[in-house]
């Protein structure tokens, strides 16, 4: 990198840091409230049947934001939308701490809070990756993977810091922790008002419209890969706690730490390694190899004679899926450089559909087979298989410029 390029990259270091923080905010959005579900039940008398709707609602709002943002972000501007995403998150966390106490129905208060911060999380998911991709960097593939690792570290941090806080101060003071979490997106909103933001679409060109994208065959291949990436990740992640409880005979709290936490840590580790060693030249090989490893992990979970060994293969699955999401995002930017906001929004939408579809497939098949989770996960092996096939096709396809 010459001196001019080095100075330019340095100018964007704060932008990249803000992007990293943005994914930590999204991790808080998705993982803080579930830690309080039993507390909501005890404190407000809300039945678990209603509380579980909060996760579905959070996910549905983010899906809707993914879809709507494809047509509005370019008109409003990235900076305004990024600041708004953080401020929606701030407002949502504050509402979570206050609305259940002031509204007649505490559940409605929680639902409103979830809706508000889910808007912020959905916007963040659409905006952060293209902004990061536009920052000057010698290794954009590695930078994208490093970015996505921060979601994993954010997930780990939310669970660990919240657990320590509840131990020290008591879970009955959870509202103060919600306020404290709101300080992170508040700081990030201020940061995004100042940092430089490079054009997402190359200068002299205009971003593709949704109609143009859907007529592009490569877009459909990338979309399928994103759906399978999300499905491969969540199909195991959502059930890791169950494997930990059954395999180790521990409490649910310990099971959450041994299962999902192990999955998140290893997924983050794989993204760090990919961030260091991955490049555009070998990205297809990384995705392909990770797909094969994911298939092996799924088979290990299903056919291991020991529940403990099945749990260890859950960790292997976490390591294997880490490359999928950032890798496919970067391939989208490489193969469809004019894709712009519409491309990243629709790919985020596909990933979220997969995050919902993977656990659903596991749950439905398991239910039909007498609540046998291993049979459900065996059915979900179709997702990493499709990733291997798609990555093999990409290796034979030249980027379109």
Explain the overall architecture.
By secondary structure, the chain is mainly α. It contains 20 helices and no strands. Helices cover 81% and strands 0% of the residues. Helix 7 crosses helix 18, helix 11 runs antiparallel to helix 20 and helix 15 runs antiparallel to helix 16. It is globular and about 55 Å long. The mean pLDDT is 84.
Short description:
The chain is an all-alpha fold.
Please tag this protein with its features:
401 residues; mainly alpha; Growth Hormone, Chain: A; 20 helices; 81% helix; globular
Structural topology:
Layout: H1 3-11, H2 13-31, H3 37-44, H4 48-51, H5 53-76, H6 78-102, H7 106-134, H8 140-169, H9 174-192, H10 210-214, H11 217-237, H12 240-248, H13 252-258, H14 260-277, H15 283-303, H16 307-321, H17 324-335, H18 340-368, H19 373-379, H20 382-395
Helix pairs in contact: 2-7, 2-8, 2-9, 5-7, 5-18, 6-7, 6-9, 7-18, 8-14, 8-17, 11-16, 11-17, 11-18, 11-20, 12-13, 12-16, 13-14, 14-16, 15-16, 15-17, 15-19, 15-20, 17-18, 18-19
Which oligomeric form is depicted? single chain
CATH topology of the largest domain: Growth Hormone, Chain: A
Largest β-sheet summary:
none
Portion of residues in beta strands equals under 5%
């Amino acid at each position: 990198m010459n001196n001019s390029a080095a100075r330019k990259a340095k100018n964007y270091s704060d932008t990249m840091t803000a992007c990293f923080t943005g994914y930590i905010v999204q991790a808080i959005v998705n993982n803080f409230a579930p830690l309080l579900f039993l507390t909501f039940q005890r404190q407000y008398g809300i039945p678990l049947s209603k509380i579980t709707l909060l996760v579905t609602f959070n996910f549905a709002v983010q899906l809707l934001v993914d879809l709507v943002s494809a047509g509005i972000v370019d008109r409003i501007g990235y900076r305004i939308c990024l600041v708004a995403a953080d401020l929606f998150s701030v407002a949502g966390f504050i509402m979570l701490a206050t609305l259940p106490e002031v509204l007649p129905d505490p559940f409605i208060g929680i639902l409103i809070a979830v809706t508000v911060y889910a808007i912020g999380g959905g916007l963040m998911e659409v905006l952060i990756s293209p902004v990061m991709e536009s920052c000057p960097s010698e290794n954009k593939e590695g930078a994208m993977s490093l970015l996505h690792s921060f979601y994993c570290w954010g997930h780990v941090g939310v669970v660990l810091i919240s657990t320590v806080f509840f131990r020290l101060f008591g879970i009955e003071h959870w509202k103060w922790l919600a306020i404290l979490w709101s300080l992170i997106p508040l700081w990030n909103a201020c940061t995004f008002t100042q940092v430089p933001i490079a054009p997402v679409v190359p200068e002299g060109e205009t971003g593709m419209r949704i109609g143009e994208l859907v007529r592009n065959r490569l877009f459909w291949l990338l979309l399928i890969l994103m759906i399978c990436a999300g499905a491969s990740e969540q199909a195991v992640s959502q059930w890791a706690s169950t494997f930990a409880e059954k395999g180790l005979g521990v409490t649910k709290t310990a099971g959450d730490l041994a299962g999902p936490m192990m999955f998140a840590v290893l997924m983050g580790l794989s993204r760090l390694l990919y961030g260091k060693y991955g490049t555009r030249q070998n990205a297809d090989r990384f995705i392909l190899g990770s797909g094969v490893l994911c298939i092996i992990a799924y088979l290990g979970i299903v056919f291991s004679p020991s529940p403990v060994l099945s749990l260890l293969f859950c960790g292997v699955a976490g390591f294997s899926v880490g490359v999928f999401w950032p890798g496919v995002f970067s391939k989208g930017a490489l193969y469809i450089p004019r894709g712009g906001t519409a491309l990243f929004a629709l790919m985020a939408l596909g990933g979220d559909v997969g995050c919902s579809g993977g656990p659903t497939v596991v749950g439905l098949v398991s239910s039909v087979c007498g609540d046998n989770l291993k049979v459900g996960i065996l059915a979900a092996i179709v997702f990493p298989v499709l990733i291997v096939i798609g990555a093999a096709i990409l290796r034979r396809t030249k980027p379109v410029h």
